Amino acid sequence: MAVSLKDPQDGDLSEVSDINVTPFIDVILVLLIIFMVAAPLSTVDVAVDLPVSNAQPQPRPDTPVFLTVKGDLSLALGNDGVPREALQATLDRQTNNDREQRVFLRADGAVAYRELMDVMNLLRNAGYLKIALVGLEDTGQSPAPATGPKP
């Protein structure tokens, strides 16, 4: 509620029933600008070509356990091939049943993300929850050309 001070000699102040909407409009315009800027940023329709990692390498254990997903989707534990059905038993033998040991998972660039997730689910079902993804280190040089299938 606002008051008008038109006639100070009267002694009684009359009420002004007009609402000042200018601050309300200012707030609405600021919110509109914020949403106009934030809305395009919230959509995720960008094609993903994952880059090489530039994170600091972590120290490696004395005997790391490397699980490799080859381009033909076969698995290799260290340098030896292993069938998916025998993965848990082979991992248990190699880690001496230490399921807290970290498993380093690496995959060929041609392996689909879905296939990599299937292997991670195999590891999780086997009880190995500490999984590290292995990638190339960023040396500051331009990446090597992709060696994909030729048309």
Please explain how this structure is put together.
InterPro entries: ExbD (IPR003400), TonB_ExbD_1 (IPR014170). Pfam families: ExbD. Involved in the TonB-dependent energy-dependent transport of various receptor-bound substrates. It comes from Bosea lathyri. This protein is α/β, with parallel strands linked by helices. The protein has a domain of 70 residues: Nucleotidyltransferase, domain 5, CATH 3.30.420.270. It is built from three helices and seven strands; from the N terminus they run E-E-H-E-E-E-H-E-H-E. The strands form two sheets. The chain has a five-stranded mixed β-sheet, with helices on one face. Strands 1-2 form a two-stranded antiparallel sheet. The C terminus is likely disordered.
For this entry, give a set of tags:
151 residues; 3 helices; 28% helix; alpha/beta; single chain; disordered C terminus
What's the SSE blueprint?
Elements (H helix, E strand, L loop, with lengths): L1 E3 L9 E3 L5 H20 L23 E5 L5 E3 L2 E3 L4 H9 L7 E5 L5 H13 L5 E3 L18
Parallel strand pairs: 3-6, 6-7
Antiparallel strand pairs: 1-2, 3-4, 4-5
Q: What class, by secondary structure content?
A: alpha/beta
Write down the overall mean pLDDT: 78
The separation of the N and C termini measures 76 Å
**Count of distinct strands:** 7
Q: What is the CATH architecture annotation of the domain at 65-134?
A: 2-Layer Sandwich
Q: What percent of residues adopt helix (DSSP H or I)?
A: 25-40%
Q: Give the C-alpha Rg.
A: 32 Å
Question: What is the class of the domain at 65-134 in the CATH system?
Answer: Alpha Beta
Proportion of strand residues: 15-25%
Unreliable runs, pLDDT <50, ≥5 residues?
146-151
Strand order of the largest sheet: 5-4-3-6-7
Report the sheet with the most strands, covering strand number, pairing sense and barrel closure: 5 strands, mixed
The general outline is elongated
Q: What is the element string, with H for helices and E for strands?
A: EEHEEEHEHE
CATH topology of the domain at 65-134: Nucleotidyltransferase, domain 5
Count of separate DSSP helical elements = 3
Subunit structure: The accessory proteins ExbB and ExbD seem to form a complex with TonB.
Keywords: Cell inner membrane, Cell membrane, Membrane, Protein transport, Transmembrane, Transmembrane helix, Transport
Subcellular location: Cell inner membrane; Cell membrane
GO molecular function: transmembrane transporter activity
